[in-house]
């Protein structure tokens, strides 16, 4: 759903940019509370993983594909404020390095794909957790539902922005019906990917899932070949904060590199939902050439590398590396601000 330059006029694009900048500023402040010793090392990895999975377009209808937006996944794994930042970093890397998503439309894309998806998904996720039993399965079910609804939510937001500043004269009803219809189908793929990823992390390190930190996790003992709840007098497990995140980080990074560097070659080449709707309905009549069209990584291929498989794979690996580096730098900076805030608060309370 990367909106190119020319779909939305300058005034609305500028307004969306201002709104996106405000949302990012709020998220930077809110992320200080989320980026603790568990989340901080993983936030950059989450951004890189989303970048990698976004390269894996999957077919959803005849001649149409979809890809992960990632807002739901990021919000549930590392928190909603940090989630907005994760997807925003991905969109920035894609726009600047790969000519994917217009630069003047960056604010539009941040609002659609980062802010709206996170807000819708996390609201649905938290709402369902209040109704469902306090179990890991409930977290996975709520993640599925939140991700499913977040995608048509983003499609609705695009339609609203198009109604305010669309550069072509296409009936709004046709745009709305086509956008929401195809993105409901894409939302199913989003939900499956999100639930599977959240479930995988829950299985090995539930303490690293921001949305699951309220779950009770009793110590298990193996008795007679079966796992049973340990008695209350059993020794406590190692505190979650003392457990290393390095194995998860390394595994996640390798997975992202394999997905972007190898599996992406087999992704669907059909246009995604927005591209298909734009071509069918004539929304793309005034599309403009991307400012980074001459980038050596434009269109997710390395310039002057003739072999398509190698070119795309190298571009994917470079993208994952750039995203994890930029994301980690941003999140560690925010993490240091959190530490400074806690130190200042502690000093003030001691002085009193």
From TrEMBL:
Major site of localization recorded for this protein: membrane
Keyword tags: Cell membrane, Membrane, Transmembrane, Transmembrane helix, Transport
Gene3D superfamilies with a match to the protein in the record: 1.10.1760.20
Domain PDGLE: 247-336
InterPro entries referenced in this protein's UniProt entry, alphabetically: CbiM/NikMN, PDGLE_dom
Pfam family, one: PDGLE
UniProt keyword Cell inner membrane present: no
Transmembrane segments: 7-28, 40-60, 72-98, 110-129, 141-164, 176-204, 248-267, 313-334
Location(s), subcellular: Cell membrane
Membrane topology: Multi-pass membrane protein
Official protein name in the record: Energy-coupling factor ABC transporter permease
Gene source species: Streptomyces flavotricini
